[in-house]
Amino acid sequence: MASSGNSPPRLPPPSPNQVYVKMAALNGGFITLPERNFVTNADPKWATTTPSMCFLIEHPTGSGKPDRIVFDLGIKRDLTKYLPATRKHITERQPVYSTPDARASLLAGGFDPAKDIDYVCLSHVHWDHVGEPLDYPNSKFIVGSGTLYILENGAPNYPPERIIEEGVLPPDRTVELPPTPGSERKHFAHSGKSNHQWQSLSTLPNVVDYFGDGSVYVVDAPGHIHGHVNALLRVGPEKWVYLGGDCCHDRRIMTGERGIAEYDDGHGKLKSVHAELPIARNTIQNIQKLIEVNGDTVEWVIAHDTKWACENQARFLPGWMY
């Protein structure tokens, strides 16, 4: 769609015979986030127990049986399965509730993760999003560029103790998206990348039209950790849903009420929850512009959005968002 002046283009209108997806939120456990580590002007003593939300997406096909995608897997139900350094980190996020998890949420909605889920798209592989991939023995896993590198080698800008679990994804069923055009991180890309091509869409510099029909876009959302991706879903003629993963951890950052917190790393330097803070800020700005340009046609939700979860319980499976 054409834009006026220097304004970014709006999201495209539906094509003839446009495909729309159906979707529902899933419970993926709960973690507690101290406000001082995530937002500016924080109460140093305040912490919020937030959901680690996942989502079920149904993509219609010509066969009559839809493709079913789960976006993010939340927290492992057995916390002892995490690496020692991760278990230590989890002690700083208490209380943590690992049930109901994504598997239980799907089963409660009538879906068997072992049989009914075709794809799992992970926004990234932090402990509260990677869940239990073994629950999905027949699913293809979709991850952002650089994910397989950090699974094998650990994440840059992280402590020396390994907190990223090696071998958590099945190599024969995992598709890593290619580096974005002009990316400086090509050395992190895995040789087994997919054949998908990046394109720009409205204010988003790099998206992949995963099924080629304008209904499911995987969005490059760098800054938080290598391989971080979001999803943009077409759910109606004039309605989209943006799944922001961990682009930020508090909805007030997205609305502009607060900024991203920086705090002492224990060695006299500032750090944040994002591996590359300037890039993370740029990602957030692109999403904010998307919402501004497209108005109420875009509903957005981030993984740890307590307010959204509280106000939308009826849209968790077995209920549906759209």
TrEMBL record:
InterPro entries: MBL_superfamily_lactonases (IPR051013), Metallo-B-lactamas (IPR001279), RibonucZ/Hydroxyglut_hydro (IPR036866). One of its GO terms (molecular function) is metal ion binding. Residues 111-131 form the Metallo-beta-lactamase domain. The keyword Metal-binding applies. It holds the Pfam family Lactamase_B. SUPFAM superfamilies: Metallo-hydrolase/oxidoreductase (SSF56281). Its cofactor is Zn(2+). Keywords: Hydrolase, Metal-binding, Zinc. PANTHER family: 102 KBASES UNSTABLE REGION: FROM 1 TO 119443, QUORUM-QUENCHING LACTONASE YTNP-RELATED-RELATED. Belongs to the metallo-beta-lactamase superfamily. This is Metallo-beta-lactamase domain-containing protein. The lineage of its organism: Eukaryota, Fungi, Dikarya, Ascomycota, Pezizomycotina.
